[in-house]
Design a protein that fits this description.
The structure is a single chain. Helix content is 15%, strand content 37%. Strands 1-2-3-7-5 form a 5-stranded antiparallel beta sheet, with no helix packed on it. A two-stranded antiparallel ribbon has the order 4-6. The radius of gyration is 32 Å and the shape is rod-shaped.
Length: 143
C-alpha cells in the first residue's frame, strides 16, 4: 500500500470588501458629520449683537447676547459717549419691566437706584461711561 501525501487545501477566497448602507443610514452619517462642522462655525454657541444710536450730543452703543444658554450668566454693555461741547446731566437708564422679568438674575454696575433704573453721573465732553447689566435667563426661547 502506498502512502499518499495529503493534499493542500484550496486557497481561502478573498471577497472584495463592500459597504452597503440603506438610505436612512447615509442620511444619518451625513447629519452626524455636519454637526461638528456647525459647532466649529459657532452655530450652537453664544452670539453677540451690537446696536448703536446717535444724537447731536450723545453716542450710545449696546452690546448684548443675541443667543446664550438657559441659566447661563451673561452681560449687556452700554457705552454712552458725550460728543457735545457741554457736560451732560445725570442720565437715567431704565429697562422695560416686561424685559427685566424674563431673567432670574439681574444686576447692574453702577447699581440700580430703583427697580430697573440706574443713573449715570455727568459725562464731560469727549468722555464716555460704561454701564454693565449682568443677566441670567430664566426661560428658554427668545427674549
Amino acid at each position: 500500500m502506498s502512502q499518499t501525501e495529503p493534499m493542500d487545501p484550496p486557497p481561502i477566497p478573498r471577497p472584495t470588501p463592500r459597504i452597503r448602507l440603506y438610505r436612512y443610514q447615509v442620511v444619518g452619517i451625513v447629519a452626524l458629520a455636519i454637526l461638528p462642522v456647525m459647532a466649529a462655525f459657532g452655530i450652537f454657541g453664544e452670539s453677540w449683537s451690537t446696536t448703536d444710536a446717535r444724537t447731536p450730543s450723545l453716542e450710545l452703543s449696546l452690546t448684548y447676547p443675541a443667543r446664550f444658554r438657559y441659566k447661563q450668566l451673561n452681560q449687556l454693555e452700554l457705552w454712552v459717549r458725550n460728543t457735545g461741547t457741554q457736560p451732560t446731566d445725570t442720565m437715567r437708564v431704565s429697562l422695560d419691566t416686561a424685559f427685566a422679568r424674563m431673567f432670574s438674575t439681574l444686576s447692574a454696575i453702577p447699581p440700580f437706584d430703583e427697580a430697573y433704573v440706574l443713573s449715570l453721573p455727568p459725562i464731560r465732553p469727549g468722555a464716555a461711561r460704561l454701564a454693565i447689566l449682568v443677566i441670567q435667563a430664566e426661560r428658554y426661547g427668545r427674549h
